[in-house]
Design brief:
Elements lengths: L6 H4 L10 H14 L6 H5 L1 H19 L18 E5 L1 E5 L2 E4 L4 E5 L7 E3 L4 H10 L5 E3 H16 L10 H17 L3 E6 L1 H11 L2 E3 L1 H10 L8 H16 L10 H16 L10 H11 L21 H5 L10 H7 L7 E4 L7 H15 L3 E5 L6 H10 L6 E4 L11 E5 L8 H10 L4 E5 L2 E5 L4 E5 L3
Parallel strand pairs: 5-8, 9-13, 10-11, 10-12, 12-13
Antiparallel strand pairs: 1-4, 2-3, 2-7, 6-7, 14-15
Length: 464
């Protein structure tokens, strides 16, 4: 029998690298919660952690008892590089007339796979390829295609789709065809793809699939501490049991331990009518959130506003990938290249050019990186603001100006508040804004006060 008191003694003679992936993850989990055996406090005080670790101990003892020494094959199959050339075209239909692009694009297709590659998150480019393929045989409006184009270009700008992607050529093809169709269509258009094009894109679309275990974890987190979730919990439990019965979750699944613990918690919640909400222990919740956010963070904190870990092992942190805006030129030299949901504060003495600086920056962002809202509460929509916009020549379809903060900011990527003081916003208000729109970037302009030695009074520093 393996326990926390003899675990490291029992495993000292075992080559951990030869264990199945689920057991290797269990070993890593034990190392994290016990500081490599030095401190078992987390195990002792947390019933959830104790149950998870004990489940791992049982499975490891069972594995050793069977005398298995060879490692199980991982779930993921090695992804072959696309190497089969094919020519693809799209057809446009204007009224009753069909036209075909005169410049067919040659690109490579992924070889046929018996099973999709199982992943924690399907890559962004495959999501867009599936969405494009789904347009075949449908009639779409001009507004829909514009939304598609904007979403695709935003993903490219934010480097969620990179030039090094194995499907970069397909993404380029999709973007060109969408723009070409949008520019030539009227209000609506019937979209038709060549059969070989449709087949090629569909094969790519099904080449990767999210792990069933990750889908279960996502649904489970969504039930946390919400009233009236018993029916949804019962359905999720049925889904988990069905996944076990039909072999959709295997012992080699990298998150088998987490799913097993989820199953037990759901059974307890569904079976005990006195429990009003499904309460997930914070440490466990953070660990599961780390999985669906794309990192094996284990028991790490998750910032409530950004959704990012607040505590990580330096090895995990060094391997994380952050999305940056892609600033260039003088803005890169001045600011660097911040993440796509950055927050900045601008302040200074009167007539130092705070508003001019912000308006010029807003114009640059509008021309290159997305939709911008400039809230000019200090000056309002009057001649002074107009003059500044014209002086900096920043007028652009992606730049919007307002004299008050709109009810919704969902349609903008960057929001400038000029100034926070005039808008009457307090620190809690700014925190709530960021919590409501965690993926938006905010630039705050502040008025400050300074002591005037001549009049012996405090004066407010306003906007330039």
């Amino acid at each position: 029998m393996i326990t926390n008191t003899n675990y490291y003694e029992q495993t000292s003679a075992i080559d951990i690298t030869t264990l199945p992936e689920a057991l290797r993850k269990g070993h890593e989990f034990v190392n994290k919660i016990s500081s490599n055996g030095a401190d078992w406090a987390n195990y002792e005080v947390s019933a959830t952690i104790k149950k998870t670790v004990n489940t791992y101990f049982e499975k490891l003892a069972e594995f050793i008892g069977k005398g298995k020494s060879a490692a199980s094959k991982p779930v993921r199959n090695k992804k072959e590089k696309p190497n089969t050339p094919a020519t693809v075209q799209t057809a446009r239909q204007k009224g009753g007339l069909k036209t075909r692009s005169s410049n067919p694009i040659k690109h490579t297709l992924q070889p046929k796979q018996d099973e999709p590659l199982l992943v924690e998150r399907v890559p962004e480019e495959i999501r867009f390829i599936k969405r494009f393929a789904s347009l075949h045989g449908k009639t779409k409006t001009k507004e829909y295609l514009l939304s598609f184009i904007n979403g695709l270009q935003k993903a490219i700008v934010e480097k969620r789709i990179r030039k090094t992607s194995p499907y970069a050529e397909q993404i380029r093809f999709i973007q060109e065809r969408l723009i070409e169709t949008y520019n030539s269509m009227k209000k609506e258009i019937a979209i038709e793809l060549k059969p070989e094009t449709l087949d090629a894109l569909k094969k790519i679309g099904i080449s990767e699939k999210m792990l069933v275990s990750v889908g279960i974890i996502k649904r489970y987190i969504g039930l946390n501490e919400k009233p009236g979730m018993r029916d949804r919990a019962r359905k999720l439990l049925h889904h988990v049991n069905s996944a076990y019965e039909h072999g959709k979750i295997k012992d080699s699944d990298p998150y088998i331990v987490e799913v097993h613990e989820i199953k037990k918690n759901l059974e307890h919640f569904v079976g005990d009518r006195t429990v009003k909400t499904l309460e997930i222990e914070k440490a466990t919740l953070n660990g599961l959130a780390g999985i669906i956010n794309g990192c094996a963070c284990g028991l790490n904190g998750i910032d409530e506003i950004s959704g990012k870990p607040t505590l990580m092992n330096s090895m995990d942190f060094a391997n994380m990938h952050f999305k940056t805006i892609g600033l260039k030129g003088k803005w890169l030299q001045l600011i660097g290249d911040p993440s796509s949901n950055f927050t900045a504060m601008v302040f200074g003495k009167p007539k130092m050019g705070k508003s001019y600086l912000c308006i010029e920056f807003a114009g640059y962002l509008a021309r290159n990186h997305g939709r911008v809202l400039y809230v000019a509460k200090e000056e309002g929509l009057d001649y002074t603001l107009q003059q500044k916009l014209n002086d900096k020549d920043v007028k652009h379809p992606n730049l919007f100006v307002a004299s008050t903060l709109p009810h919704s900011l969902s349609m903008y990527d960057f929001i400038f508040l000029d100034s926070v003081n005039k808008l009457g916003l307090q620190p809690d208000d700014l925190n709530k804004l960021k919590a409501t729109y965690p993926d938006k970037s905010f630039v705050y302009v502040f008025q400050t006060e300074y002591f005037d030695e001549n009049t012996h009074t405090c004066r407010r520093i306003g906007n330039a």
